[in-house]
Automatic annotation (TrEMBL):
Family matches, as CDD domains: AKR_AKR13C1_2
Entry superkingdom: Bacteria
Organism in which the protein naturally occurs: Actinoplanes sichuanensis
UniProt entry keywords in alphabetical sequence: Oxidoreductase, Signal
Signal sequence residues: 1-25
Protein name as annotated: Aldo/keto reductase
Cited InterPro entries: Aldo-Keto_reductase, NAD(P)_OxRdtase_dom_sf, NADP_OxRdtase_dom, TAT_signal
Pfam families in the cross-refs: Aldo_ket_red (PF00248)
Record Gene3D superfamilies: NADP-dependent oxidoreductase domain (3.20.20.100)
Every NADP-dependent oxidoreductase domain range: 72-364
């Protein structure tokens, strides 16, 4: 297909998706009966029953170890309105999750600390009725008061993990967690003990697969030796490519999948954040050094690159960002957050974007030439990444 045809097709795809959004969302809100409305049928109804060709559906599937998921997941971290500022409403978040299911997304990402607790509750409510059709990933690792949600420090002691999982199952309204991650390495607990606890949870049928988030590389090997890992969930995007050095080669060696958090660099690589952006008080993104007034102008070169290629490929910067991650390895799955349906539908269009011939090399060479300024996380948060667990 020529580039201009590609552009036109994606423009139609995107505009139809946006036009259909409220109705598609409304229809998706009716899927709790246990039937997933197919994307085509939702789109057909939304368009008055006269078209099926404009649906924004995600058909592609990828494997994380032995776990099959949609090629894009939906990150739900900010849906409680506590991290990136308020969201429109709880009901809207439930509708977006159901719309994602309706449009072919089968992979949803939460954590006990998101909210805290509330994101798991939202996800549980939204997915009730379609539970068997989706893969739920969630995470333990911190002290969280199960009544108040008050958050304490790291805690991956085996007894604590088991208690945390019982709370998760209640909030998620399910009898099993498909993918349970440790969400940060606890420097006080050997990873062998953590893996042993997860193994018992798997034997009990409460957990199906497990993973680690931002661990040290030796910790990955040690954990995998006790209970094989399904996925590593680390930050990976056009501004932070650290996993390429050691973690991705290790995942390839061990047959572990890779889930990218912040695949859009918190929204930066969509073009939605620029040096004139002002974050509300308490918005986490304001604390990210890459977003500082000093660093952001230099980093805008990445957005410029995406804009240039967007014109050439007929894609949005967000779609190109996700397509580039997809192009790295077939076992990489990005999980962008969207608390607006329009963002969700736009992101699903990434599946249509492919790099042909030497385009991937050309794009990456241009990306390599951009010097990214500023750390990826505030110092206190960064200190919790890449940590090696103590020996037993
Ligand atoms: N394991 C970990 O340590 C860890 C850490 C952080 C996050 N995570 C997981 O990763 C997920 C994603 O990470 P993230 O939310 O930090 O970063 P992200 O997905 O890179 O960026 C999310 C931001 O981008 C915006 N956005 C999404 N699509 C867009 C589009 N097409 N155009 C314009 N803006 C768009 C979203 O806006 P709207 O919300 O307004 O749609 C939101 O503000 C989280 O939900 C969470 O599940 C895991």
């Amino acid at each position: 297909m020529s580039n201009s045809n590609n552009s036109r097709r994606r423009f139609l795809l995107g505009s139809a998706g946006l036009a259909a959004t409220p109705l598609v969302a409304g229809l998706a809100g009716c899927t709790s009966s246990g039937q997933t409305t197919s994307a085509a049928s939702a789109s057909t109804a939304a368009a008055g029953g006269n078209t099926t060709s404009t649906a924004v559906t995600l058909a592609a599937r990828r494997r994380l170890g032995s776990l099959e998921v949609s090629s894009l997941g939906l990150g739900c971290q900010t849906m409680a309105g506590t991290l990136y500022g308020p969201v429109s409403s709880r009901e809207d978040m439930i509708t977006i999750i159901r719309t994602a299911v309706d449009q072919g997304v089968t992979f949803f990402d939460a954590a006990e600390v998101y909210g805290p607790l509330e994101v798991e509750r939202i996800l549980g409510e939204a997915l009730q009725g379609v539970r068997d059709q989706v893969v739920i990933g969630t995470k333990f690792g911190f002290e969280v008061n199960q009544q108040t949600g008050e958050r304490g420090g790291l805690n991956s002691r085996p007894d604590h993990i088991k208690q945390a999982v019982d709370g998760m199952l209640q909030r998620l309204r399910t009898d099993h967690i498909d993918l349970l991650y440790q969400h940060r390495v606890d420097p006080a607990v050997p990873i062998e003990d953590v893996a042993g606890a997860v193994k018992e949870l798997i034997t009990a049928g409460k957990v199906r697969h497990w993973g680690l988030s931002e661990p040290g590389v030796q910790t990955i090997r040690r954990a995998h030796a006790v209970q094989p890992l399904t996925a590593i969930q680390n930050e990976y995007n056009l501004l932070w490519r650290g996993p390429e050095q050691q973690v991705l080669p290790l995942c390839e060696e061990l047959g572990i999948g890779f889930v990218c958090w912040a695949p859009l660099s918190y929204g930066f690589t969509t073009g939605a954040i620029n040096p004139y952006t002002r974050f509300a008080e308490g918005d986490f993104r304001a604390m990210v050094p890459r977003h500082s007034r000093e660093n952001m102008p230099a980093n805008m070169a990445v957005v410029q690159l995406l804009n240039d290629w967007g014109v050439r490929k007929g894609a949005t910067p967000a779609q190109l960002s996700l397509a580039w991650l997809h192009a790295q390895k077939p076992w990489i799955v990005p999980i962008p957050t969207a608390t607006r349906t329009s963002h969700l539908l736009e992101n699903l269009g990434a599946e249509e974007v492919t790099f042909e011939g030497n385009e991937l090399q050309e794009f990456t060479t241009a990306l390599n030439a951009i010097k990214i300024r500023g750390e990826r996380l505030p110092a206190a948060v960064l200190a919790g990444t890449g940590v090696e667990a103590p020996m037993p």
